[in-house]
Each structure stands twice: as C-alpha cells, then as structure tokens.
Amino acid sequence: MSHMSRIVMAAAGLMCALVVAAGAETTELSYYTWYQSSDGSYPANMIAAFETKYPDIKVNLQVGSQNVDEYLEMQQVKLLSGKDIDVTSIRSESYGSYVKAGYLLDLSGEGFLRNYNKSYVSLVTRGGKVYGVPYAMDVYGCIYNKTMFKDHGWKVPTNYKEFSALCDAIKKAGITPTVQGYKDTWPIAQDLQLFMNRAVVQDPDIYNKIDSGKAKYTDKVFVDAMTNLNAFFKSSAVSDTNMALTYDQASAYFASGKAAMLMHGEWVLDSIKNAQPDFEIGVCPAPLNNPGENQRGVVAITSVQSIAKSTKHAKEAKLFLDFMSSPEGATLMDRALGNFSAVSGIDSAKLGLWKDVLSLPSVDFAYDYMYTGASSEMFKSAQVMFTGKMTPLEVCQAMQAAQDKKSK
Amino acid sequence: MHSKKRARQAYLFMLPALVFVVAIYLIPFVCTVAFSMTNWTGLGFDMEWRGLQNYVNAFLDKNFLTVLGNTFVYFIELVILQFVVSITLAAIVNGEYKGSGFFRSVFFLPTVVCTIAVGFIWNIMYDPISGPIKIFFDAIGLHSLSSVMWLSNSATAIHSVSLVSIWQWTGWSMVIYLAGMQAISPDLYEAADIDGVGPFRKFFKITLPLLAPSITINLVNSTIGALKMFDLPFAITKGGPGYATETLSMLMYNYSFSLNKMGYGAAIAMILFAIILVISGAQMKALRKNEDNIL
Questions:
Q1: Nearest residue on chain B to A372, judged by CA atoms?
Q2: 3-state secondary structure chain B
C-alpha cells in the first residue's frame, strides 16, 4: 500500500470514529437533592461510580438549599414545570401531596425495591402503589454525655420515671439535665416525642383518622401529651434558656458540656462533633415508656428518592435509582451523611452508637405524618404555651383549627 | 400630522417599558387577585372558585388578626422612632466640624449590610447566654436586664426586632434629611441669628418646615417598608415566639409556600396591598398638602 493510501485510510478511519462518537448518544439526567456531605464528596462520588458503570448516562447534580422551605419551593417549581428534574429527593412530609398531585412516576414492582426492608417500603406505599424508594432513615433517641454519666455514676434511664429521677439528680449536681433549641420551633417536636409517641403507639393509623375526622387533636391522648410537655418545660429537667436557643446553639450548649442530655436524632451528631466536645457521646433509647411498658426505638423514613413523572428518560432514571438502592450506592450515602440508609444489609459504622435503639421494636416519629399546617401551628402555639399565654388544651384546639383548614 | 407622527414615535419608545410593566407588574397582579378567590394549593392546576371566602376566613382567623396587629406595631414604632432618631442625627452631623464625615459614614454603614446578615448578627447580640448585650448589662450591674430573653419573651420580642430595623435604616433616612438640611439657605439662619432666635426655635421654625419634601419621602418609604417587612423578623425570630413577631408578609409566605394554600396566601397579599395603598395614599395626600402650605 502506498504512503498516500495509508494516509487516506487513516483519515477515513478517524472520520468514521468521529462519526460513531457523535452518534453515540449520552443521556443526561437531572438530579435535584438537598443531600450533600459537609466536604462535598457525596453525592458526587456516588454519581461518579454510577457514571463509570453506565458511561452513556450523565447525571447533572443540582444541590438545593438546605433551608427546607426554599428547597421545597424550588422543587415544586421544577415538578410543576416538568423541566430540569428527572430524579429528586423528596422530604417525607411532602411525599403524600406530590403523589396526590401526580408528580411522581409509579415504581411499583421495580426490582430495586427488594433491596429495602418490606416495612420501610410500606411506609412509602400510597393507594397500593410505590412512588419512591425509602432512601434514608432518621433514628431518634436520648443523646447523653457518657463521660459525665460515668464520672457521676448515673445510669441510663429505661423508662420515663427513671428519666425524671435522673434529671433531679443531674440538677442537684448543678448541671442542666436537658437542653433544646425551642427558638427554631421544630426542635420542640424532639421533646414532644417523649409524650406524643404514645398516640402513635396506641394507634399507628392516628393521623389518617385525624385527616378523615375520626380523631381530633383535642382527644385526650394529645391533650395529655401537650400537658406533659408543658410540665416538662416548667420542670428543672429543662434548661431555662431553651426558648432563646436555636437548634445550632442547643447542640453547641450540649457539646460544651453544659447539659447532660439532648433529645434528638442522628442528624444532630455532626453538629455536636463540629463543636469538638471533649467527652464521649452516648445514645440510649428515648424514655417514652412508663415503668413496666416495653421500650421502643423511634425510626422514620426521612426522605424518598423518586422519579418525576415528566421525565423523558424513565429507563435511565430507574437505573440511577437502582444504583442508589444497591449496597454500593447506599454504602456511599451511609458513610457520608448522618442519616441511616434504609437499604438492607449495609454495614454502617453509625450502627454502633444507635444499636440499642435500632434493636428495639420500632415506632414512627410522633409528628412525621401530621398535616404540615397542624404541625406548624403546634410549634408556634407550643412556644406561646411556654410563655404561659396558652393552655395545653388551647394549643390542641389551635392544632385542630389548623387541621380543619386543610380541606377549606 | 406632524404631532401624530411624534406621538407614534413616543409610544414606540415607551413600548418596551410598557411591556415590562405589564409583564412584571400588571399580569401578576391580576393573577394574584384571581388566585385569591380560589382554593389553589400552588401545586398542579386544580382549583375551585371561592369568591371572597378567603378574605372572610382571614378576618375570622385569630392568628391573622394577631399578625395584623404586629404589622401595625412595627409600622407605628418604625415610622415614628426612625423619624425622630434620623432627623436628630441629621441635625447633629449637619455642619462641617472635625469628625462629622466619620460619624455620617458610621451612621450610614448599617444600611449597606444585607438584612439577613443583620438578622444573624443581632441574634448573636441578643444571645441570653453569651451575647454582648447580656455581657454589657452584667458589666454595669443591671442584672435584671441581663437576664431578659429579648427575642423569646413575647412582651419584648417585637420591640427588639423593631429596634434592629430602626438601627439598620436610620442612616438612610438621615442622609435624606441631611441633603434637605444642606439645601436650606444659610441666609434664613443668619436672619434668625440677628433676631436672637435660639437653636431649638431655629430647628422647629426653619429647619423642620423646610424639610417637608424630605419628610414626605422618608415617611412614605418607611411606612411602606414597615408594613411589608419580611426579611428581618424572618432572620431573627422566624416570627416567634408563637406569632409575636410575625408580619403579614411572613404569614402570606407561610400559607403560600409552606402550607400549600396559595389562594389564601394571595388573599393575604391583597389585604396587605390594600392596607399599604390606603395608608401611604392618605399619608402622601396629607404630607403634600403640608408641603404646599409651607412652600
């Protein structure tokens, strides 16, 4: 073959390669989420691993605001317009309304759902169908200063009576027993869980009954919960600065060793660790139960990963969810974030601290399935109750009034 | 013929601005009025006509009435106190003496700080455990004041937020009054000096009346700003404790975007619009009349 012929053949081969490359289509998926580890590595590393496995699919990551309201607003705009959103992380409290509005793709029967515990999948089932994967769990308990407990010989409480007695002992030692960031309103729910979980334990369907009018927030179980919360706030078990502290300030207060206990979930540990406490952190089940009653571990599905119904790349989006639901994808999440992965069989380092809580029969968060209007009113009215300007019954009446507005 | 051509040209030049005003102001306004009469959630396009029911529900809602009251408290405190403080500061820094330029800058500085950042800063200032205000009161022995939880006590929270707003915007008003004062002819003060008029009488009889246009601008601006306040209480207290510091703008935001009651939120927006229109309109009329009488 002549020299010129070789050049022509090589050029033709290059042209063919370029044509083939241009013809090989890359599908781009838009992934809108609030999840991002503090060092930014996740979910970038998870996406990189997915793209390595599926080179023809590119994921355009969009990290939304960490402020809940801002994130929800942007998400609603994207879902409503159907633009720039294929896969998205949905907060558990929004999931139901998005399903109702028809924004999400039906994932019932998809293979990746088998990677999850059936009871977690049932929590994301609506009308017999599944519209998302139960991606991350929150676990709630009593976070305590283990070093302080050891130094003073205090024992971890196993019921509410022991918890009350322990708070008295801690107070006598000149230390604040518990602290909470009531100024940010939502942390009020973390103390309220101590008393309101009884409603969920007695009747796991309570919030559906409230929605249908068969139960009310003015029923005894809720009024008792609010009365007990008010008494708890006024007791010496609670820091007298709770009303003035934000969530971050309360975490810092605990981390500085000024308070012995903090009722919260695993999400607060990062905040505490960033404040560099000089003590060992311990976690025990929250003392929800009375003496003689069984202890329970409080667990909730905190976020759902779903596919927008408007997506033009359903097949690729399902592959992405499949990867996230795999042990490889889920492990990356578990290592990076404070939440637990709901995927079965993940070997989580966090499990050690929360082992005792997760080993117990679980009950859902007391406020997770409340209508947002009622929970919002609950937080605000509880703040007013703490200032002495509302009674517990009036708070429950305000919550019911907000609930009644839901259908108006 | 020539004037018709000129008129056509004028309209052509106005067209882009007109399109902008219609697209950004008029259409959204009409949509808001329409949505305020529906039960639109803001999700999807399903909605039912409700007529004036949202407006009726608002005035029957105890929380709405509380928040309406808060809005008026902010309005009265901000307008009156900001007026008094800013005109006093303008009178003090008006004049060429050593340090006057420095003080003008210092008083104006909070205006250029982003309101959200101001909110965060003052959250720290009011911190009941280690905030500078607590430390200051402890240092001067006023322990009864150092133990006050300014932002979480419903009796003090709203006034604490008002104070921050006055701190932030007084400098802006001061600059406008300063410009007005410097436009007053010195001959008037010289004549007053000759007549033996004292400084207070000079201020009330010469300065204040001739500041009428500046007063009009400042009062109307601070009225509108106070009535539609959102960012500062949102940053400092999120409307708490309870509803003690919440404003109508915040209530509108919560209903529209957090509680998915866009129709009800739109009704609150229209009520706020009507309040601002009536109050600022009456204010403008009264102040312009006052200006005409004086000038």
A1: B259
A2: CHHHHHHHHHHHHHHHHHHHHHHHHHHHHHHHHHHCCECCCCCCCCCCECCCHHHHHHHHCHHHHHHHHHHHHHHHHHHHHHHHHHHHHHHHHCCCCCCHHHHHHHHHHHHHCCHHHHHHHHHHHCCCCCCHHHHHHHHCCCHHHHCCCCCCCCCCHHHHHHHHHHHHHHHHHHHHHHHHHHCCCHHHHHHHHHCCCCHHHHHHHHHHHHCHHHHHHHHHHHHHHHHCCCHHHHHHCCCCCCCCCCCHHHHHHHHHHHCCCHHHHHHHHHHHHHHHHHHHHHHHHHHHHHHHHHC
What are the residues facing A303 on neighbouring strands?
A: A91, A136
Could you read off the pLDDT of A233-290 as tens digits, one per residue? 999 888 878 888 888 889 999 999 999 999 999 888 888 888 889 999 999 999 989 9
Of residues A73, A97, A183, nearest to B240 (C-beta): A183
Query: Quick check: A358 contacting B, CB < 8 Å?
Result: no
Virtual CA dihedral for A305, A311, A316, A322, nearest 10 degrees? 20
**With an 8 Å Cβ cutoff, are A183 and B237 in contact?**
yes
Among A389, A39, A24, residue whose Cα is nearest residue B241 = A389
Give the architecture-level CATH label for domain B62-294. Orthogonal Bundle (1.10)
Distances in Å between the Cα of A286 and the Cα atoms of A139, A199, A253, A261 are 10, 16, 20, 11
Q: pTM of this prediction?
A: 0.76
Instruction: Test B152 with A182 for CB contact under 8 angstroms.
Output: yes
| Structural domains of chain A ordered from first start | 3-137+302-352 (3.40.190.10), 139-299+358-407 (3.40.190.10)
